[in-house]
Amino acid sequence: MLTSFKVNLIGACLGFVTVGFGAFSNPAINPESHTCPNAQTIGGQICRGQVPKEMPEEAWGQFGAVAYQAAAEVMRSNNAEPQPLTEIQKEYLRPHFGDLVDRVEVVYNATLMEDWVAASFKINVGESNAQVYGNTIYIKKEMKEKDFEQLVLLSHELIHCQQHEELGSLGNFGYHYFKEYKKAKENYRNNKLEVEAFDFEKEFAEGLAQKMPGSYRPR
């Protein structure tokens, strides 16, 4: 699950501002004075936190490319070092994900971000149990390697890791995730990247229930 995070475009995203705002006619923002471009331009509106709801999908995608990279940095700074999946977890997940399970890392007891929001760009999915940035999964609870629910949760997040690898970078994933969210009329569950993850999660849970009788609770 990708939830949202509160980030100031002239703060956490400042290091990415040249790349991110390039999509908005490349407004020149002075990092020292934090001055904004003309208020009539898209970049000027974003700088002032005044992004109209009718903002095009492409603009959402370009912002997502910036914001997702900034979020990954924030999450790394605010949490403990990640650890690899355990051999037991890999045993359950490898048949579906192959050697991806050897590349993914997990942080347990993680501090998660509440909202992805900067200006009007916001994805709000309520309380999140896990978030993924690249190949690092952040889980709110402690590690329980044989726990049915946590294995199902990992299967969902591994789909996002898989999507990230297919898209090739943090920026590309953020671009497509935000663009698809806008395309889905800002409905989190209808985002096609989430549809894929939730569909697989259900399939994985049903299969896992055969190995752990009595554990499956349909969602």
Gist?
By secondary structure, this protein is an alpha/beta fold. It has 8 helices and 7 strands.
Notes on the protein architecture:
- The chain is globular, with a radius of gyration of 18 Å.
- The protein is built from eight helices and seven strands.
- Residues 3-33 and 116-120 have low confidence and may be disordered.
- The strands form two sheets. The protein has a four-stranded mixed beta sheet, with helices on both faces. A three-stranded mixed beta sheet has the order 1-4-5, with helices on one face.
- It has 219 residues and is an alpha/beta fold.
- The chain is 46% helix and 11% strand.
- A hairpin with a 2-residue loop joins β6 and β7 (136-139).
Number of H/I helices: 8
Strand order, main sheet: write it out.
2-3-7-6
- Termini separation: 15 Å
Q: How many DSSP-defined strands? A: 7
Looking at this protein, list some descriptive labels.
219 residues; alpha/beta; 4-stranded mixed β-sheet; single chain; DUF4157 domain-containing protein; disordered N terminus; 7 strands; 3-stranded mixed β-sheet
Question: Helix and strand layout, with pairings?
Answer:
Layout: E1 4-6, H1 17-20, H2 42-47, H3 57-78, E2 83-84, H4 87-97, H5 100-103, E3 105-107, E4 115-118, E5 121-123, E6 130-133, E7 136-139, H6 148-167, H7 170-183, H8 192-211
Helix pairs in contact: 3-7, 4-6, 6-8
